[in-house]
Structure of Secreted protein:
Amino acid sequence: MKSKIGRRDFLQKSGAAAVGLSVLPGIVSASQPAKPARRSPGDKLRIAGVGVGGRGFAVLRAMESEEIVALCDVDWRYSKNCFDYWPKAKKYWDWRKMLDEMGDEIDAVMVATADHTHAAIAATAITMGKHVYVEKPLTHTVYESRLLTKLAKKYKVATQMGNQGASEEGVSLVKEWIQNGEIGEVTRVEAFTDRPIWPQGLNTPTQGQWVPDHLNWDLFVGPAKMRPYNEIYTPWNFRGWWDYGTGALGDMACHILHPVFKGLNLGYPTRVQGSSTLLLQDCAPVAEKVRMIFPERARLRRVRMPEVEVHWYDGGLQPLKPDNWPAGKSLNVQGGGALFYGTKDILHVGCYGREPFLLSGRVPNAPKTERRINVSHEMDWVRACKESPENRTECSSAFDEAGPFNEMVVMGVLAVRLQALNKELHWDGENMRFTNIGDDETIRTVIKDGFEIRDGHPTFDQTWTEPVNAKKFAEELIKHEYRKGWSLPDMPA
């Protein structure tokens, strides 16, 4: 494929004028899924990468012992280093065209695009019989997480979410210490991240810009609503914009809350509540706080699992340090941390599950019940791809766990975005709905803050949305209505 196209042709494809015009091929049909030959442990896995300009390049390099056969990205300048690293791999703008043309030459797909396109790419690949590795957060919505969980089970493919701490020692230790009763019964957890380190709390740009030749804006927008291109949205800053990302919570909770989800055997929360600095319609806030309440769970080996509150902070906010915290010691380990408050002791663990320790100073000697992984997170997935479904040892963040866990993560986003209802929200996880939002309730959100200095005085002339039906707004956040030309496979029974 040519690395550049003419501006007239490009603008027709890119939607740069934001008129909502899309010239898009149909979604890949999964009615006759490709069935690549099964790889034996000695064979190289044939991998296609989608979203290879940033994190995706690093993930693929961790798998470079395998055969990288295709590379796809909407930004060919951002992905140039990856393209140059694998010059023999076929290059694409559109992942659907890639799967159409090379379906029987691909065994597995690595996805590291913006959050809002993870589900469509992964779901389509799964229905074609491809193994998938998807960077965190797994998906943009609760519904998409549930869909990937069920599709992975139906098609029996090897899956992995890219929260690499799941394959490290710390997460295993946290679960083993808790289930051995080392800290007693846990009724409260407080967790935080030092993110965002990208801009958030921004007003939406009022003017578009010319789309650069190296970017296909229409394909970047994908299933989201079309809007004029602006350099503030991509490549990296997408995380702070609701249409494309999930803010600091979605980015980092997949690392920081995973020991919490796994160690406490969590499922669906029953009650959630969020607050933040100024909440804007399009951009995630500067700082957030969320509380989720999980019901009592089945006993885990030697300890009871009572109802537990999980508190989240970001944007520079941290929990208060517990009594007897070592003076001068930071709560922040490589981007955040979590405190487990047990009836016998307090456990602190850093981001990625690293450096767990008990506040009492004891060093537990708990039985080793968790599988230890002696290869990288990425290569453990490669190993699983080469095993038959009947004999496969599942990865540490396979979708049967990563899917429900990611529902917890994006539930935090829902709590923040629905905070204007001014109440704790009750969640029916099985049916993916809030049960205490009335049919006639409405909600409004700030479109722009209107901040300016007038005669030396700060003023806020805020612009608000019109009141919208809160129940329908929540339903859209739970399950997005995709832009015309984009869709997902049906939810398996």
User: Anything to note?
Assistant: The domain at 167-199+242-358 is CATH 3.30.360.10 (Dihydrodipicolinate Reductase; domain 2).
